[in-house]
Write a sequence for this structure.
């Protein structure tokens, strides 16, 4: 046998960096011993994962309401599966395509087995896989940032069971997939072995996250800080430059793709990456988030409606950790997640930025980690600070009693709120009108192949599976005004359309879309599902206003 | 279609070649623990081994005396220096005899072979060695006074049969190719050689290498007909399971200089490559017990072939991708080798910085620029040397059948006998 001086590869290293051991020990522990040492972690993590999967998975198809964006991404994933390119309409660089390419891969086998399963409600199951992976990664990250087992578990539970997280992670949003990649990147960056290629992998994972949802770009500095803290002085420059290079190279594949297609810069007769970016950067702002009249304020309150503990508690936790940086080991260990929360909060506080409803998804795991870390910090301060060997027993007892009181108080506030929120999530049926509309259009229309319908994205795939022609038969409603390739086929405007499915989204956006507005005006409901603002009307062009079905 | 498949296959092959090379090149920096383990252990003060230091010298009267004096300054208490000179080289012999007259630790052995090369010289001296360990140095080497004490300690604590110390070219500022040449040594001795030692297959370097005398005699010394006798010795010893330990300390390395001209670098590299091919064809590496080890051996010894291959194919591939109409996906694949090249460049830049820090040398911006700009040209040089080696080895094989003196006539002057 030949060998170098033996190298230690499995040293357990806390978040605070420490010099490499002078005298390396004899090598890695055997797998069975490692598994034994991991058993408590596996039990905690596995148990929590079961609970999270049940809460998130139960009733996933019926709650929350199908969103237009989910339909968009899934339809584009369907187009990828069908080999129709990156979208069934012209791909115009609205987002990098990696997100729905992954959805396409996830849905590939189900779609092979049963083509009809590629609809929004069914494919939400795929998101369960994503959020399961994310939850486990959240736990691993907590442990790697040297949180005690209970605190890492708390973080995982906060991230997995907060009603806000339950609602958002059920939906087919690119952000959910991107968060998974970012969590993977953080886990690799905090790798206890401080391995060069783990850091390199962290760079790749981060780039995958950014290519899935470009907003993840703002979190990268926090990732860098985490990597800096977890690398060793002697190997840091190789590790960090490796990670940055990996991230940049993979990230550049997107502009390279545009370049190879000749769509990097704007030009006559084609879309371009430049135009896509310009559009996203110039989206009209939704106002200052703390101004009660603004749209952003509404978005903020829609989050707080589901849960106040995680967003507000997490913010407070981040503040606490950043303020106690000098004294608290936990605060320094959680520098990365705290910074991520701080950056995301700062971006949300732009005076007149665009704040989409899914923005908070990127912050959820970090909020949870920071809140759990803050809790760990407080508990540590109560139980351990200033404690000596000769301390009186009643003082020690008092420390534990105070901890218990705090835990009970927190639990008494959180549990009832979350119970209500999660009960709604596992019982409510918000999508009945959609299912009914889908069934009506699949069964009551005589000749779907030659029928043209303006429909929102969430229902679009249902129509495609029912036999409508994708793109020009079943039409994403706003394409009737915005896509020249579609308007060209409608020389007579609304007269070339047979039906409009007026869902809340369609009615809301119709005021800016003349063709859609005209189609609604010149049509009458032939079937209506649901009541009030949430109703879905199927309106036939040219029908008399009398023929309504309930 | 056929073009696309061809381009994709070639691109992927190039990508994996470069990726593996990069993976191995970065071995020492994988984790802080690995980096720490590549250094010599701190000596415990005990000195139990005796050394016989071989110093083959040929027409090197100018530098030989200095090298001997410096070796004699060693802090170790038990060693002898055996200077090996040729019977047809009176100037060097005179310098060696003077040194021997001044200090009883110096002895002179005369090599009387008609055709001279380094392995023959060292084999001539081997029966005269009295030490427990035989060490090899070149006549122009600058050896650190505490090296022997460290090596002694390494032998005793690791029960090694072979200890390979670091060799480092230092004059990175001399020219664009010496910059790259220095960095090549840096990555090789600092990093990759440790991986080879760990995997149990190692082509040894040409100097600052120490072998237990009985092990060396058992292996019949060096192969006198091999152009890379150092590499060959390492392969033969690791194939029979001898334990090799590599240690690299920046203040303990043997310092050398790059070849004086581009042409001599090309010749040196040709010889090294051809030596590798000879070792490959001797098939001693097939005795290695592990499949992975044999694969690593095959790959490492075939590197000249690969370099020649990539030297021809990379430009062809790029041209095809540029001038022929291929699908976007395939065009994407053609960028994969470029990606590994960029990662390699970045790590080389960081390596150059680390080199500067380790040796207290000031690396300027212009050096980094030279490193990057010179990269492709150096690749051309390597590919040229590889093609040249393959071509010469083809002819060498014919010579073998005629004269049974493989490659001996190809031997360059001793100075270019570089570590593999």
């Amino acid at each position: 046998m030949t060998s170098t001086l033996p190298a230690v590869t499995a040293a357990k290293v806390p978040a605070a960096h420490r010099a490499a051991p002078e005298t390396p020990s004899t090598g890695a522990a055997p797998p069975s011993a490692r598994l034994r040492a991991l058993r408590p972690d596996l039990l905690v993590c596995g148990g929590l994962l079961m609970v999270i999967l049940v809460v998130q998975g139960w009733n996933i198809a019926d709650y929350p309401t199908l969103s237009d964006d989910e339909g968009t991404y899934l339809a584009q994933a369907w187009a990828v599966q069908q080999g129709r390119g990156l979208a069934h309409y012209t791909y115009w660089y609205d987002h990098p395509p990696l997100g729905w390419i992954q959805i396409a891969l996830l849905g590939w086998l189900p779609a092979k087995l049963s083509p009809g399963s590629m609809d929004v409600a069914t494919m939400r199951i795929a998101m369960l896989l994503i959020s399961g992976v994310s939850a486990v990664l959240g736990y691993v990250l907590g442990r790697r940032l040297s949180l005690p087992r209970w605190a890492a578990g708390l973080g995982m539970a906060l991230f997995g069971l907060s009603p806000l997280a339950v609602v958002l992670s059920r939906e087919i949003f690119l952000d959910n997939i991107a968060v998974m990649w970012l969590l993977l990147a953080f886990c690799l960056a905090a790798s206890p072995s401080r391995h060069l290629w783990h850091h390199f992998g962290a760079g790749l994972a981060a780039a995958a996250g950014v290519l899935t949802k470009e907003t993840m770009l703002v979190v990268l500095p926090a990732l860098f800080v985490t990597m800096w803290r977890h690398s060793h002085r002697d190997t840091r420059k190789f590790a960090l430059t490796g990670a940055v290079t990996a991230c940049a190279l993979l990230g550049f594949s997107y502009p390279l793709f545009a370049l190879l297609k000749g769509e990097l810069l704007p030009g006559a007769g084609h879309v371009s990456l430049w135009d896509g970016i310009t559009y996203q950067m110039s989206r009209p702002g939704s106002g200052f988030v703390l101004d009660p009249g603004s749209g952003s304020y509404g978005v903020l309150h829609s989050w707080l409606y589901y849960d106040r503990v995680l967003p507000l508690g997490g913010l407070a936790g981040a503040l606490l950790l950043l303020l106690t940086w000098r004294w608290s080991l936990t605060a320094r260990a959680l520098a990365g997640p705290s910074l991520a929360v701080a950056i995301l909060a700062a971006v949300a506080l732009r005076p007149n930025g665009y704040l989409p409803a899914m923005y908070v998804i990127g912050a959820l795991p970090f909020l949870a980690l920071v809140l759990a870390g803050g809790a760990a910090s407080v508990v540590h301060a109560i139980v351990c600070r200033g404690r000596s060997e000769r301390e009186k027993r009643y003082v020690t007892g008092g420390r534990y009693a105070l901890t218990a009181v705090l835990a009970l108080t927190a639990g008494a506030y959180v549990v009832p709120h979350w119970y209500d929120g999660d009960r709604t999530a596992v019982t409510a049926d918000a999508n009945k009108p959609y299912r009914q509309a889908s069934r009506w259009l699949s069964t009551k229309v005589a000749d779907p192949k030659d029928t043209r319908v303006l429909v929102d994205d969430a229902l679009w795939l249902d129509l495609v599976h029912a036999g409508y022609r994708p793109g020009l038969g079943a039409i994403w409603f706003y394409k009737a005004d915005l896509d020249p390739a579609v308007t060209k086929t409608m020389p007579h405007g609304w007269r070339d359309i047979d039906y409009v499915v007026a869902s809340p989204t369609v009615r809301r956006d119709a005021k800016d879309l003349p063709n859609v507005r005209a189609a609604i005006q010149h049509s009458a409901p032939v079937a209506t599902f649901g009541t009030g603002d949430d109703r879905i009307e199927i309106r036939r062009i040219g029908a008399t206003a009398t023929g309504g079905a309930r | 279609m056929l073009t696309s498949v061809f381009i994709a296959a070639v691109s992927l092959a190039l990508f994996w070649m470069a990726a593996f090379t990069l993976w191995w090149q970065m071995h020492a920096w994988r984790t802080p623990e690995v980096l720490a383990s590549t250094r010599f252990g701190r000596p415990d003060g005990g000195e139990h081994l005796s050394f016989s230091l071989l110093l083959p010298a040929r027409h090197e009267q100018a530098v030989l005396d200095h090298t001997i004096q410096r070796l004699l300054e060693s802090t170790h208490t038990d060693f002898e220096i055996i200077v090996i000179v040729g019977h047809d080289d009176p100037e060097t012999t005179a310098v060696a005899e003077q040194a021997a007259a001044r200090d009883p630790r110096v002895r002179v052995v005369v090599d009387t072979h008609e055709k001279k090369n380094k392995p023959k010289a060292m084999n001539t001296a081997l029966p005269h060695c009295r030490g427990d360990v035989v060490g090899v140095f070149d006549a122009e080497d600058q050896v650190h006074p505490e090296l022997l004490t460290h090596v002694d300690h390494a032998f005793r604590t690791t029960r090694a049969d072979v200890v390979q110390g670091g060799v480092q070219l230092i004059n990175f500022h001399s020219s664009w190719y010496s910059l790259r040449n220095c960095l090549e040594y840096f990555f090789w001795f600092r990093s990759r050689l440790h991986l080879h030692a760990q995997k149990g297959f190692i082509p040894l370097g040409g100097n600052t290498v120490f072998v237990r005398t009985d092990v060396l005699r058992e292996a019949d010394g060096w192969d006198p007909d091999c152009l890379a006798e150092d590499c060959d010795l390492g392969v033969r010893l690791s194939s029979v399971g001898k334990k090799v330990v590599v240690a690299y300390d920046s203040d303990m390395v043997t310092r050398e200089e790059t070849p004086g001209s581009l042409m001599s670098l090309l010749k040196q590299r040709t010889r090294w490559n051809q030596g590798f091919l000879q070792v490959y064809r001797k098939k001693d590496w097939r005795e290695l017990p592990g499949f992975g080890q044999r694969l690593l051996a095959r790959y490492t010894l075939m590197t000249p072939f690969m370099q020649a291959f990539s030297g021809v194919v990379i430009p062809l591939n790029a041209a095809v991708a540029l001038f022929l109409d291929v699908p976007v996906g395939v065009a994407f694949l053609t960028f994969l080798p470029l990606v590994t090249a960029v990662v390699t460049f970045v790590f080389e830049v960081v390596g150059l910085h680390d080199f500067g820090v380790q040796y207290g040398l000031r690396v300027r911006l212009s050096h980094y620029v030279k490193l990057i700009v010179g990269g492709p040209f150096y690749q051309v040089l390597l590919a040229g040397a590889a093609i040249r080696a393959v071509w010469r080895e083809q002819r060498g094989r014919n010579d073998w059948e005629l004269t049974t003196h493989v490659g001996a006539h190809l031997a360059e002057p001793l100075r270019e006998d570089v570590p593999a």
Observations:
- The mean pLDDT of chain A is 88.
